[in-house]
């Protein structure tokens, strides 16, 4: 009798022939991420990140996280949003794979490199260019009624090679959703945003929230780019679904001072402010000063912008569109499209390390050797040669960004011609992923039903996406 597990490993979907596996580059709560090279004649050798999603909790269908990512990214076309290249499904185990343009870097690794290897701050031009592009992509999302809800350094990708070198890509849309006229309070979606980047209205139990939660997260990222460490590094209490996080709020209040009804009129309406008011106000903090932490003069443009991003009242918090017009971006050095080149003559370019690759993992996540295993040594040599050649090139000075009007989402899907063959990938997920609570039971369909009734993956996702009002 054939072991079903062994049979499942031997049956490889036809779509796998489109790629040459290099190795695994990430692993998280909701799946694995692989690095592969395209075999398509027009894109041969182009590197692709392939995210493999685990099944839903019921084990019989498509992950709600994957559905969100597909339905939003197939509509989003913008230079600062990660590009979804293809979608595949393996009917043998109902695993789903998403193929993306590969980004060599992310902000988490860039910040870590400066903190642990270089022991030096990120230059002003790079900080300003990265921040401008984050805001540019976020403005596109917010202009189209999309809240990301999981912005943090590891989800901000940066291209490392080719025509898009130094271009920011906002990634990981597993928690993103459309918020125009929501069918139910957004708090019903469960806890969102990784705790260090979570806005105070979320921590205090707001029933409804807006795109301002993304702007708070961008403010935290901005401060981290300036200081090389998280601004509000609280310890998360994971006992129960209560969004109130005392330690995280304490870290915020120590830096920004206590919020007051005068400063934040709707504060009194937040359930966990009322329930914990005496505890919160019983804490006294001396000389709170954000400017001393980020080491920016209190009257500098950088500090002014950061303060507006970290405004307690979400109604007063600066929007992405307003932030793009802030005078911080009108002062020297001006932001550029390639954030990784030197910002001034004579300055050396920083060579950031590329993602580590586990060459011993197959597409199914097992320890089996990957495809083309016999060519691993030459492949690694080729990658190192390419990287060395790239390091020896004299980088050009930055190209100034053009401040232009926002592009709206097209009504037609840019993935309409994609069929179902089987697809993959994903980088390590944040703490926020553990709190995703949307029901996956009514967002799944068995493999037999899919095959028998010949549903396409995208039509299935359309139905499920509409069903949950996402």
From TrEMBL:
Catalytic activity: [DNA-directed RNA polymerase] + ATP = phospho-[DNA-directed RNA polymerase] + ADP + H(+); L-threonyl-[protein] + ATP = O-phospho-L-threonyl-[protein] + ADP + H(+); L-seryl-[protein] + ATP = O-phospho-L-seryl-[protein] + ADP + H(+)
Biased composition (Polar residues): 369-379, 434-443
GO molecular function terms attached to this record: ATP binding; cyclin-dependent protein serine/threonine kinase activity; RNA polymerase II CTD heptapeptide repeat kinase activity
Protein kinase domain residues: 19-329
Gene3D superfamilies: Phosphorylase Kinase, domain 1, Transferase(Phosphotransferase) domain 1
Sequence segments annotated as region (Disordered): 356-388, 411-453
Positions annotated to bind ATP: 52
Alphabetized UniProt keyword annotations: ATP-binding, Kinase, Nucleotide-binding, Phosphoprotein, Serine/threonine-protein kinase, Transferase
GO CC annotation: nucleus
Keyword Kinase: yes
UniProt xrefs under PANTHER family: CELL DIVISION PROTEIN KINASE, CYCLIN-DEPENDENT KINASE 8-RELATED
UniProt record similarity statement: Belongs to the protein kinase superfamily. CMGC Ser/Thr protein kinase family. CDC2/CDKX subfamily.
This protein's name: Protein kinase domain-containing protein
